[in-house]
Description:
By secondary structure, this protein is an alpha/beta fold. The protein has helices at 13-24, 40-43, 75-88, 172-181, 207-213, 224-230, 240-249, 335-347, and strands spanning 2-9, 29-32, 93-94, 99-104, 109-113, 116-125, 132-133, 147-150, 165-168, 187-190, 197-198, 201-202, 205-206, 236-237, 252-255, 258-262, 265-268, 273-275, 278-281, 285-286, 316-318. It has two domains: 2-131 and 287-347, 3-Layer(bba) Sandwich (FAD/NAD(P)-binding domain), CATH 3.50.50; 134-196 and 233-281, FAD/NAD(P)-binding domain, CATH 3.50.50. The chain contains eight helices and 21 strands. The protein starts with a strand and ends with a helix. This is Putative oxidoreductase czcO-like protein. Keywords: Oxidoreductase. GO terms for molecular function: flavin adenine dinucleotide binding; monooxygenase activity.
Amino acid sequence: MKTYEVIVVGAGQAGLAMGYYLVKKGISCLLIDKHKRIGDVWRERYDSLVLFTPRKQSDLPGLPFPGERSGLPAKDEVADYLERYAAHHSLPIQLDTEVQTLIPTGSGYRVETSDGTYSARQIVIATGPFQVPNIPLMHTQAADDIVQLHTAHYKNETQLQDGPVLVVGSGNSGAQIAAELASHRTVYLSMGQKRMFLPRSLFGKPMFWYFQATGLLTAPITSSLGKWLQSKPDPIFGYRRELRKWEKAGTLQLKERTVALSGRTAVFADGSRTDIANVIWSTGFYSRYDWIKVPGVLDPKGQPLHTRGVSPVKGIYFLGLPWQYRRSSALLGGVGLDAAYLIDRICNY
């Protein structure tokens, strides 16, 4: 059984940032990831996905994101950057390996995987927030011939059949997909909560430049500003003009929350109904930690207990969680700050 000082579970942007600091400090470590290739979690997303954060604010520590710095990178650019990052820093990574169980031992932890067992004194859990697609139970009430896809599995329009598309979810992905499809087919965008629409740029600067300059990205969760921001739904960046255009053209209708599906009919919170042929669920993800068999690491709902990523159980850390400490904690350009905080705790363990 191979033994390390630190094992990092997950080699996405959070795991890679952690690996950078571990290698830099000369700490024996291994990053374990279930994907066959670094960046696959991005490559597998829908074809037209573009980040709403510019390249300048998408840097991981130790390697700038290449390309026009104020521009918005496409998802395959992100995937290639992560792969290049791992190679550039010679990070020790084992791919195509799924962690199945984490068990405490007398000297640390045992990590049982699909490719053998490992041990480490300390564990960093960097599996990210986008683990399991969240699909409402109502999907089972739709007719069998309705095409249903979560955004985790939607690639492009060729997966859909002819007929109207219902996009369920009011986030950035739902708005982008709805705007694209409404250019030439009937789309219903069901928004369960009101969202603020913000432009991608203002006066020639990306919106995230303003967020950085005003402290919105870095306000800690313990501050009044941080608490206020966390209580608000994330805004939608861009697409307002496109959505309004297709609304006026009659190919897009904004609908209230979807409350039921019945055969080929969708029912909304205001009592209105419409016939559909396709459903795209832009309803987010949930995290799954049932493989962690360490008492005290998770709360009664199965979610991490932590303070700035530090578990109350010694030697356990989390990285890449939404609002782990600040708004940017789960963003590509923000995980490095949290990784830098954790490396000091790891070194002093």
